Backbone:
């Protein structure tokens, strides 16, 4: 993981929650771990910034999804499909969807 973001275990989050909430504004973000593995992120925000923060998080997740799809496409050779092949695949998928 990049940077030196502080980690906090789920156990510490339960037992030391008051301390963690006090420190969060200074830390800005903390990685929540369970059994040493990341499971979430605590991120400081305010009522005034909540919508902007959520919007930025959603955009970042969407960008990661697109990047993941692009990487999968290249690894599997799907990036070399012709427009005709792409349309055929779309047709197959649309035909298999329940109505």
Residues:
């Amino acid at each position: 993981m990049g940077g030196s973001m502080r980690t906090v275990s789920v156990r510490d989050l339960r037992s030391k929650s008051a301390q963690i909430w006090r420190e969060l504004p200074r830390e800005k973000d903390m990685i929540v771990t369970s059994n040493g593995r990341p499971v979430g992120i605590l991120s400081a925000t305010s009522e005034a910034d909540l919508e902007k923060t959520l919007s930025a998080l959603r955009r970042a997740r969407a960008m990661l999804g697109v990047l993941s799809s692009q990487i999968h496409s290249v690894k599997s050779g799907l990036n070399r499909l012709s427009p005709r092949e792409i349309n055929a695949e779309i047709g197959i998928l649309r035909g298999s969807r329940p109505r």
Remarks:
- Strands lie at 6-9, 29-34, 37-43.
- The chain has a mean pLDDT of 90.
- DSSP finds four helices and three strands in the chain.
